[in-house]
Design goal:
This protein is of the alpha+beta class. Helices cover 47% and strands 13% of the residues. α4 (93-101) packs across α14 (271-284) and α10 crosses α11.
Length: 289
């Protein structure tokens, strides 16, 4: 990959295994929106615009080469060899089809706290509504960011959310999730659950720590492990992934426990990548909902 810096943007050349549509639309993130011929997103307290050019290059606006190296190279997981992962997973016929379809998926390395709160909100919720709640939460309790004359907002800090009450969260209309959001923020702010130390834990131990937070069940925990803590062997199972696994691999009566065991044995260290390819392929091809 070659990086060229121009005024107000950088251009990534010779880039492989990355398509913004696949990456931002596969259900792993909630603060990226289609705009014009690209995507605008808020992450790491910054706003950037990402555009895939017709020649295969990628433009990232509102950043520098230095900032790319410090933030975005890791955020977009450009340090991971997706060719090796794909070569391993393509031994499976279903995954080969899914990978060919969603070849440009990369698992984003999101902020751990933002990921924690976002997936607590995601429980029994649709993606449009999750995005709306997170946008409103950020505008109410985050910091203002100006870009191209428009106001954007960073995700609230643990300290800010921990200082709130359920009444403060009422405008968000998150219902029963309000108490879970506050519990998570308070546990993180106090250090009772040190989420940023979980990078150093193995997947099982990190999951156990996350499950100490109210509103975090196995599926939410595994989303946090995969999408922010680089635990690529995590395999989040919701109703959709359960349905996909029963259709493609197991019988219709397979339990969640049986699905998890099967995924661990079949996909091993690359289970999280398999999950994303399968989910995106199944959803876009109407195999599910």
């Amino acid at each position: 990959m070659k990086i060229i810096e121009e005024k107000g943007k950088i251009i990534l050349k010779d880039i492989i295994d990355f398509d913004p549509v696949h990456t931002f639309m596969c259900g792993q993130c909630f603060r990226w929106d289609e705009e014009d011929d690209g995507f605008i997103g808020i992450a790491k307290g910054k706003v950037i615009f990402v555009k895939l050019l017709k020649n295969g290059d990628v433009e990232i606006h509102n950043t520098t080469k230095k900032e790319f190296g410090e933030i975005w190279q890791d955020y977009f997981d450009f340090n991971t060899d997706y060719k090796q992962i794909k070569n391993t997973l393509c031994n499976d016929e279903h995954l080969k089809k899914a990978i060919d379809f969603g070849y440009g998926i990369r698992i984003l390395n999101q902020d751990v706290f933002e990921c924690l709160i976002s997936f607590i909100i995601s429980t029994q919720n649709s993606i449009p509504r999750i995005k709306k709640i997170i946008a409103n939460m950020s505008s109410l309790f985050g910091e203002e960011i100006l870009y191209n004359g428009k106001k954007y907002y960073s995700f609230p800090t643990p300290e800010r959310l921990a200082s709130l009450t359920e009444e403060d969260l009422a405008p968000l209309k998150v219902g029963y999730r309000a108490k879970y959001i506050l519990d998570a923020a308070q546990k993180v702010q106090s250090g009772e659950v040190d989420i940023y130390s979980l990078f150093d834990y193995d997947t099982k131990k990190a999951r156990e720590e996350l499950l100490k937070i109210k509103g975090v069940g196995p599926k939410v925990a595994d989303c946090i492990l995969l999408f922010s803590l680089k635990k690529h062997d995590a395999f989040p199972i919701d109703v959709w992934i359960g349905r996909i696994m029963r259709i493609l691999y197991l019988d219709e009566n397979a339990t969640m426990k049986e699905i998890l065991k099967y995924s661990e044995e079949k996909f091993s260290d690359f289970a999280g990548f398999a999950q994303q390819y399968l989910f995106y392929y199944a959803r876009e091809n109407k195999l599910i909902g």
